[in-house]
Amino acid sequence: MKKIFPIVYFFISCSAAFSQRKLTVYAGKPVASIAPTMWGVFFEDINFGADGGLYAELVKNRSFEFPTAMMGWRQTRSSYQKGRFLIINKSDNSSNSRFARITINNTEGNYSLTNDGFRGIGVHKDKQYNFSILARAEKPTNIKIRVQLVNYAGKEIGTTTIEKIGNSWEKYTANIVATDSAQRGKLNLIFEGEGVIDIDIVSLFPRDTWKNRPGGLRNDLVQKIADLKPGFIRFPGGCIVEGKDLTNRYQWKTTVGNVDDRKLLMNRWNVEFPGRSAPDYYQSFGLGFYEYFLLAEDLGAEPLPILNCGMACQFNSGEVVAMDELQPYIDDALDLIEFANGSINTKWGKLRNDMGHPQPFQLKFLGVGNEQWEPQYIERYKVFEKAILSKYPDIKIVSGSGPFAEGEYFNYAWNELKQLKPELIDEHYYKPPGWFFSNASRYDNYERTGPKVFAGEYAAHSKDNPEAESRNNWESALAEAAFMTGLERNADIVRMCSYAPLFAHVDAWQWRPDLIWFDNLSTVATPNYYVQKLFSNNKGTHVVTILEDNKVVAGKDSLYCSAVIDKQKNELIIKMVNNAPAAQTIELNLDGIKLAKTDAILQTLATNDRYSYNKLSEPDKLKPQEKKLPVRSNKLDQTLLPYSVTVLKISYSVK
Ligand code: AHR
After folding, report:
1. Whole-number Å distance between alpha carbons of 270 and 247
2. CA-to-CA distance for 297 and 307, rounded, in angstroms?
3. 306, 370, 373, best to mutate for ligand 1 pocket (most atoms within 8 Å of CB)
4. Which of 48, 215, 445, 471 could form a disulfide with 464 if both were Cys (CB 3.0 to 4.6 A apart)?
5. What is the mean pLDDT of the segment spanning 356-361?
């Protein structure tokens, strides 16, 4: 009894704070259409999002192209005479100029190379793994390579053998079945025999990849994106587009064609934060622009590539290309459109066809620059705009307003860009939760005539603790939900939105919060993810008005609301966010619709603990609860739990 009393007292005293509120939803009067692209995803190779994450390759530095050629590899031997390696650099300027030469004099198999993977190699018991290696032996040799998967303790959990290595480069493949799971396994290449062999592109992939594509993407991570039903996918970032300097910028042409020929590049997040440095973070581009387009197609999402506009990161080098040398950057944009949409008789359309996709990817949107600011951006942007629109007038250009949500750079960009022809202006806000709550009406009075808004990167940054996932707490998700009611209410001008960043590896992150956390075996959806999902899976087709005392509901007494209808499904969907420590009872008046005789669906995401979060070891602490609710009258009472997001979906009849 003693224990229960304070809890009961808390609810009685808190719920006493609010009297019942009356809200009216004008469901029969749609005020704006909602873009199919309204809720999408932002993907960047940050936090091991691509290499070590979405791109399912398990071997790090598979082709010895890291500047430190043996990074990720270790040799074990009893003596120099028994075995050694050399890294040979062909100096042929190819993207894969290095390979390893192994000399062994050893029939007992005690010379080995071990690859550590990306913070270990994750394998699942009973699953199959595709191993491959390029090898040659210039002179006949009896060398065999025993390929061994081991767990963290060194116990063998899978093996195969490669033998009869010929005298010219050839790809040898084998299948390994894991006899046990390992989170931080390793791959051993154990060399037996006598002689010299050369090896390159040592690779291990799960057989079960997304859509079972060999050399493809990690299934569980793609599934998490697919479950969001995103309207678009923005790629490849973020700051990665800019690079620390121009040499380090993202160049899509080096990311297409034969995977083995794609030129490695340092990942800018390798060195960005000294406290979170990742010296082994490189971009192999196994996940390149072709694969991004394919992913967008798989997901039914619009592809939204963002290209470098001749400017490196202004927070880093601030390097810009001279105006009279901008043409190659412009060509990259025009050629990308040809790659995506061009006939297979064009140079770049042919490459798409050669890669396996004769049909165009139907690219509609193209981003020019990421977080650029001041006149150097605008003058470059203008050249891009002119070149793109004169050749491809239907392409919708996404421009940027810089890294800040307001202030000098932001105002300057908007003032300039609204005199030009971007379809959308990208706005970024990484702010404390309080900012999101108090900016829920940010767009209510925005100019309606100029370019539309792309809320391209946002996340509420709340407090954290050493645990990786801790910054994705309920307070941050609740704040985003409140803000998103404002985005939805203003869907006439806000046409695209994406939380950022999307992925983070718990052992290899540089930036947090992030929407989805993962390790080498599993993933966890954050509360923020569930908020995104509640909105994107209940997107609707048209905004309808929801008012209290003839005013929008955007923060008065901690309540935030928006409403949409789905004209295809005949559904009214109401989203309500209660940021109060007490429950609130709402009288909802549904104006302008005739109810269908089916039950409504009520989804609730709530906890009294604002700092609670999901983690890999406790993935289901916070997730939406769903139940059916009989709604038989156009007037209904709904209790909103303390600190909650509620989505109410009501079917209506059109007869
Ligand atoms: O999302 C992480 C980074 O934040 C992006 O790369 C960049 O655009 C922004 O500054």
Report:
1. 15
2. 19
3. 370
4. 471
5. 98
Given the candidates 3.20.20.30, 1.20.1250.20, 2.60.40.1180, 3.60.15.10, the CATH classification of the domain at 7-33+543-653 is 2.60.40.1180
Q: Which residues contact 486 (CB under 8 A, 6 or more apart)?
A: 439, 440, 441, 442, 443, 444, 554, 560, 562
What do you get for the CA distance between the two ends of the chain, in Å? 55
24: left (phi over 0), alpha (psi -120 to 50) or beta: beta
Residue 290 DSSP class: H
Residue 651's CB is within 10 A of a number of other CB atoms, namely 18
Catalytic status, residue 371: yes
Contact 613, 472 (CB under 8 A): yes
* CATH class, 73-206 region: mainly beta
Q: Are 565 and 30 in contact (CB under 8 A)?
A: yes
Alpha carbons within 13 A on the beta-carbon side of 587: 7
Nearest-angstrom CA–CA distance, 182 and 123: 5
Q: What are 541's two structure tokens?
A: 């087709």
**pLDDT tens digits, 154-190:** 999 999 999 999 999 999 999 999 999 999 999 999 9
Name which of 51-60, 78-87, 515-524, 632-641 the model is least confident about. Answer: 78-87
- 305 forms bridges with which residues in the sheet? 235
Distance 546 CA to ligand 1 centre (A): 34
Ligand 1 centre to CA of 445 (Å) is 27
Residue 236, C-beta contacts closer than 8 angstroms, at least 6 positions apart: 43, 44, 45, 250, 289, 292, 305, 306
Pairwise CA distance, residues 45 & 52, whole Å: 10
CATH 3.20.20.80 in the chain, residue ranges: 41-57+210-539
Report CA 100 to chain centroid distance, whole Å: 34
- Give the residue range(s) of CATH 2.60.120.260 domains in the chain: 73-206
Would you say residue 80 has pLDDT above 90?
no
How many angstroms separate the alpha carbon of residue 108 from the centre of ligand 1? 51
Q: Please tell me the residue having the least CA distance from ligand 1 atom 1.
A: 501
Dump pLDDT digits (tens) for 244-278. Answer: 999 999 999 999 999 999 999 999 999 999 999 89
What homologous superfamily does CATH list for 41-57+210-539? Glycosidases (3.20.20.80)
Distance from residue 237's CA to the centre of ligand 1 (Å) = 7
Residue-level pLDDT at 17: 60
Q: Ligand 1 test: best mutation among 239, 249, 272, 283, most atoms within 8 Å of CB?
A: 239
All CATH 2.60.40.1180 domain ranges in the chain, comma separated? 7-33+543-653
What is the 3 state secondary structure string of 604-630? EEECCCCCCCCECCECCCCCCEEEEEC
Lowest-confidence segment of 79-88, 303-312, 384-393 by average pLDDT: 79-88
The 8-class DSSP code of residue 261 comes to: G
CA distances from 478 to 112, 533, 554, 645 (A): 52, 13, 13, 7
Structure tokens at 542: 């048209």
